[in-house]
């Protein structure tokens, strides 16, 4: 049995980033850059106005209410280059090229127009006011985004603005899920006494989907050693990670641990001093990492979020791999006994966290509405309302 911290340390130590692949920017959202990306040109590539108004030479504005003749217009998207003489002004719009000779833009609201002249109601007008200069955002040849950048909507927009549509990213892991348990029945079939609907695989597929991992295949195995061995072997040949659910405890029909031993996987840890999710088993062969999750649904999902998700993120090149953790006040008193740290299904709202009804490891009802987990180490077995507790936010 290892501590929560030790289990997390071992996950970090035994997880490697996967190889890189090329993806179009839109298909790379949620991935991580595997190389620096350089700017092929400066942004902006020409001097632009950042306001609708009038382009002026700032040194012409020597007092309030200077009157200048309007010598022309520059609108966004016009191809020809325009220039402006001192002592004149140019009508200009947001994003339009600033005429050569102009050094500032006065916003429309600070001007008035009559008889082809504009009165500038602003004094002084500093040089470069309301101008975007060439390369102000980034210069040609500079690193636009460093290796390791997570591709978000903002990243996608920035890259597209640089005319970049294909980028190198770390690939995401291919996942094989192994479901074990003779009592499990697929949704839609009729339940006999003693049977339950199989839900862990859908829960895992949903969690993987939220992470942008869709290359997932599911095998079902009877509670039988050779069937479990065969499924694990096939899944490990075809995938980077195998996630098993169920059959990892000490019962006579719990074959996952024995099967992993049979295929020669090295156990990195088995059992964590936590509740729920104690019997998590992490093992590896040369090319595959195996996470055998406890069958109890809530235990399975807690283990997925706390240990498997971070590993999958690391494999995909992400550095911030654990759920975001914050210290928040708890809205009520809570205490527990025993030797295991606890993860409580919880809800964060208005800067406070509340643990939900139904913390048993077979019960998913609380998880179904949770947006966070409270982590209480054994050193914090009694908390009062208002005490600060560690909260891990679930992905949304
Ligand atoms: N003598 C001991 N018994 C148990 C221990 C222990 O230390 N000593 N640990 C308990 C803890 S803690 C957990 S957690 C469970 C883990 O058991 P398994 O991983 O072997 O899981 P199963 O026995 O296969 O199933 C447990 C429970 O979950 C239901 N289940 C399983 N798979 C699914 C699925 N895919 N979809 C829906 N529900 C599923 C299953 O029907 C059982 O009710 O062991 C304790 N026992
Ligand atoms: O660890 Mo088990 O998940 O406590 O029921």
Automatic annotation (TrEMBL):
Molecular function GO labels: metal ion binding; molybdopterin molybdotransferase activity
Domain (MoaB/Mog): residue spans on this chain: 176-314
GO terms (BP aspect): Mo-molybdopterin cofactor biosynthetic process
Keywords (A to Z) from UniProt: Magnesium, Metal-binding, Molybdenum, Molybdenum cofactor biosynthesis, Transferase
A Pfam family per the record: MoeA_N
Top EC group: transferase
Pathway: Cofactor biosynthesis; molybdopterin biosynthesis
GO cellular component: cytosol
Keyword Transferase attached: yes
Keyword Chloroplast assigned: no
EC number: 2.10.1.1
NCBIfam families: Glp_gephyrin (NF045515), molyb_syn (TIGR00177)
Function: Catalyzes the insertion of molybdate into adenylated molybdopterin with the concomitant release of AMP.
Name the record gives this protein: Molybdopterin molybdenumtransferase
Protein's organism: Dyadobacter koreensis
